[in-house]
Specification:
GO terms for molecular function: ATP binding. By secondary structure, this protein is α/β, with parallel strands linked by helices. The chain contains nine helices and twelve strands. Bound molecules: adenosine-5'-triphosphate (ATP). Adenosine-5'-triphosphate binds next to helix 1.
Length: 261
Amino acid sequence: MIPGLPDPAAVDIQGLTWHPGGAQVLSDVDLRVEPGQVVGLLGPNGSGKSSLLRCVYRRHRPHAGRVLVDGADVWASRAPDVARAVAVVTQDAPADMEHTAVQLVAMGRIPHLGPLGRLSATDEDIIAAAVHACGIEALLDRPASTLSGGERQRVQLARALVQQPRVLVLDEPTNHLDLRHQVELVHIGLRCGATVIVALHDLQFAAAACDHLVVLHRGEVALHGTPHEVVTADTLNRVYEVKADVAPGPDGLPKVSLRVD
Ligand SMILES: Nc1ncnc2c1ncn2[C@@H]1O[C@H](COP(=O)(O)OP(=O)(O)OP(=O)(O)O)[C@@H](O)[C@H]1O
């Protein structure tokens, strides 16, 4: 789909602890993600999902522990080297709102450009492929500030893809997307060949889209396993404090029915 995508990388999170201003946000988190795996990060609001992902894409420096991408500690590596390996789509609007969509997408090539910062024909091909994959051709000349939340998220995904990442970090990438674009995100982002770590709120979507699920609770890994092992009535009760029935749906995946009485 995107020309020249490199091999996916393993991600090893070891004893990760982050306590800004004394608040214990992440405590001794261990997680191994195999190359090419799609791992869903679940957990209630405030459980530490975004904080964990920020440690992976080198936004937060952990107070203890480390994140290894193919064996290299991201905080012992140079920022441009990490940017060549790890791309991110966040739930926030991009900072550069005055730029047009195509300028934002092209910024994804910056870690790969030479000293003159010029785009080559190969770079242009990669950008065109990502624009096509994300279906944003009609948005290219629009300033980011005029785009809807879902349009902006697709522009961010295209920017992440042109980075040709070995690891793709997605922080609640579906929160602005309608059903069709959620399904497309699975095809484009989750199956692009990179190792993917994705924070999600919808357990059923996570079960359908991910190979492996990890549930954070109060900054610790509460449980992890296959969708069948993780999406259970017990998890919903113990971690989310809701009553629910979980039974296999027609596709064999866990189907959640919340009890609201
Ligand atoms: N810089 C910071 N300083 C102090 N506390 C922080 C900081 N960043 C995050 N927190 C706190 O850490 C906890 C975890 O936040 P985080 O955003 O990682 O959770 P989350 O699981 O992604 O939540 P949500 O599902 O609501 O997006 C929250 O209680 C949050 O207030």
